[in-house]
Amino acid sequence: MILLTAITHAGPRLAVKTASGIIILETAKKEAGLPLTMEEIFIIPDALDRIHDFINQNPGLLAIPEEECRIGLPFRPRNLLCIGLNYKDDQAGPEVSLPSEPVIFAKLTGCVVGPNEPIVLPAAVREVGYEAELAVVIGRDCRRVSASDALDYVAGYTCLNDLGARDLLRSDGQLVRAKSQDSFGPMGPYLVSREEIPDPQTLTIRSWVNAQLLQDSNTNQMIFGVRELIAYISDGITLEPSDVISTGTPPRVGSARKEQVFLKSGDEVVVEVQGVGRLSNPVRRS
Fold first, then answer.
1. Is 141 helix (H, G, I), strand (E, B) or coil?
2. pLDDT tens digits for range 174-198
């Protein structure tokens, strides 16, 4: 299933993207036990199974064209963990040694915004870069799981743009401010349930700024795949429903290019992960 949050007159409402269009569950049928919002899928037992069965058993549900639906932030993560230096093609060269363990940091979840919401550049910040990432959404309590069982704990996948300010990183010597400025975590537009993505290590991942393709790779280039990341993190940190792991970005980020590319007011940034979605956000200066 492909889930999303539709912005309605009544507020954010859980919806399903189908071949015939967008079905907002609240308006489709008053069905007891179905979640009203995306957040509720992490609370109601077997919520995804209930939605799946409801859609399959009611083929005549009224759908609206996606272009007529305002899509919001799918949900706000409980925690947002990010992985650095996780693509082989980003660490190419005989002089570069690959990390022996995942490099993990966190973004404050207040930085997360939805599709088409503006990325707001702080007035004093000049070196803000884009980072296309596959984000993994945890669906149930997860502690000390094996890599072989790790995908059983995944609710689904979404796109994330792990924005960061290089100048703040230099001045601070650490990542919290650089990575957690307001609007520095665009996410969405969909939550694609795990059965739609049998193997998360086979997905093309790309980013564009103003229609110029800047990143083009595949999740098969991850040093630590989704299974390994979940197993590694959950060994000492209990992952809970709605926690998100953003799995790292491919090469050719703005600061690493021969002619550096930093975001400016008026830009449009797009992140696309095959089978997961296409996330677009405008950029403006505060």
1. coil
2. 999 999 999 999 999 999 999 999 9
Each residue's pLDDT tens digit, 215-268: 999 999 999 999 999 999 999 999 999 999 999 999 878 666 778 889 999 999
Rounded distance between C-alpha atoms, residue 206 and residue 226, angstroms: 18
Per-residue buried b or exposed e for 167-199, using 16+ beta carbons within 10 Å of the residue's own CB: ebbeeeeebebbbbbebbbbbbbbbbbbeebee
The answer to whether the beta carbons of residues 276 and 205 sit under 8 Å apart is no
Partner residues linked to 55 by β-bridges: none
List the structure tokens of 68.
């007529």
83: its two tokens: 């992985």
Domain boundaries, the chain: 2-72, 80-285
Handedness of CA 88, 94, 95, 100 (dihedral sign): positive
CATH tag for 80-285 (out of 3.90.850.10, 3.90.950.10, 1.10.3290.10, 3.30.360.10): 3.90.850.10
Letter string b/e over residues 102-139, b meaning 16 or more CB atoms within 10 A of that residue's CB: beebebbbebbbbbbbebbbbeebebbbbbbbbbbbbb
Cα–Cα dist 47/40, whole Å: 8
Q: Do residues 281 and 132 make contact, with C-beta atoms less than 8 angstroms apart?
A: no
Residues in a beta bridge with 207:
215, 271
ω into residue 241 within 30 of 0, thus cis?
no
Question: Under a CB-based contact definition with an 8 Å cutoff, are residues 269 and 105 in contact?
Answer: no
Q: Which two tokens stand for residue 209?
A: 């700024």
